[in-house]
Design brief:
Length: 321
């Protein structure tokens, strides 16, 4: 297809961004669309590129895709895309890209922030909780960490844990290079084998049909009572009732959650009552640089698309990431 005739629907971009994109890519037709007019515009679009997750959540429906006879590419700005993978998209030839890898620096920082808050008792200090005898802080050097999910976020978590002097193991559904910062890589079916060794478990896996509820009664039962458990990926990876039961039975020195199931977590949920649980409101992906990286990624893919080159950050729609 001649680049001149490619029509790209832009959803959720600022006026300044739209003007920059138009001046950068004069050979393509770049059309801003809104919730109100996307139904009428989508039939003429070769691509739907979103810079606003909330708006895409509303408009990317089976009905919209049925009207999109020319659509060849859809881009979602975030990393979590499980809710977009409806049959009409999965079974179509449409290439689907997202923001995976780009949020790695911020989310990995946040994972360590949750862990250090708990190991250094900062949650008790900040709360000025005088009713608790503060336990002695725990240092990370020499401790064993297990990182579940080693994509663009998980690998940065591995890197940072190793820098603290931890012995780091990974659980991943694909083999990864033999890096010196990793002791060994286990497959998901071997999770129960490695969990008993962990002083720290950090979950950074995508939410898929296979990974949903991967942390449940069996997994928590084999973990050390003194372990720290951190989840910065998706709340659905953890069976909340099983986590609550484990906490009630004295499991865990600390739990740090940026994501929960349900989300947002209701104020009356019992998880809020545990002094050794720290919960942040799904903000790990936010940073001063993530919008810049997302926009740069979009510009790179637009250039590739209009020149018929392979896109980056393609989602395997069957596998879910």
């Amino acid at each position: 297809m001649n680049a001149h005739y490619k029509r790209l629907a832009l959803l959720g971009f600022t006026t300044a961004q739209i003007e920059e994109l138009k001046s950068t890519f004069p050979g393509a037709e770049l059309v801003p669309v809104l919730r109100e007019n996307i139904d009428s515009e989508i039939s003429k679009a070769d691509a739907l590129i979103s810079a606003d997750r909330a708006v895409l959540d509303e408009v990317l429906t089976a009905d919209l895709l049925r009207k999109a006879g020319k659509l060849r590419w859809v881009h979602a700005t975030g990393a979590g895309i499980e809710h977009y993978l409806i049959p009409e998209l999965v079974q179509s030839p449409i290439v689907f890209t997202n923001g995976k890898i780009l949020q790695g620096p911020g989310v990995s920082d946040h994972a360590l922030a949750l862990l250090l808050t708990l190991t250094r008792n900062l949650h008790l200090t900040i709360a000025k909780d005088q009713d608790v005898i503060t336990p002695r802080p725990i240092e990370l050097r020499g401790k064993v960490a297990v990182v579940v999910g080693c994509g663009g976020i998980g690998m940065l978590i591995v890197e940072k844990l190793a820098a603290f002097g931890m012995k780091v193991f990974a659980v991943n559904n694909e083999n990864i290079p033999y890096l010196t910062m990793l002791q060994k890589v286990y497959m998901p079916e071997q999770l129960l084998k490695i969990l008993p060794l962990a002083d720290v478990v950090i979950c950074a896996a995508p939410l898929t049909k296979q990974s949903k509820g991967i942390f449940g009664p069996a997994e928590f039962a084999v973990m050390k009572d003194t372990a720290y458990f951190i989840n910065v990926s998706r709340g659905g990876l953890v069976q909340t009732e099983a986590l609550l039961a484990a906490l009630k039975n004295g499991k865990f020195r600390g739990v740090g959650l940026d994501v929960t199931d349900p989300e947002p977590l209701p104020d009356d949920n019992p998880l809020h009552s545990f002094r050794n649980v720290v919960i942040s409101p799904h903000l790990a992906g936010m940073s001063d640089n993530n919008f810049t990286r997302r926009y740069e990624n979009i510009m790179l893919n637009i250039d590739r698309f209009i020149h018929d080159q392979p896109l980056i950050n393609i989602v395997d729609k069957e596998r879910g990431y």
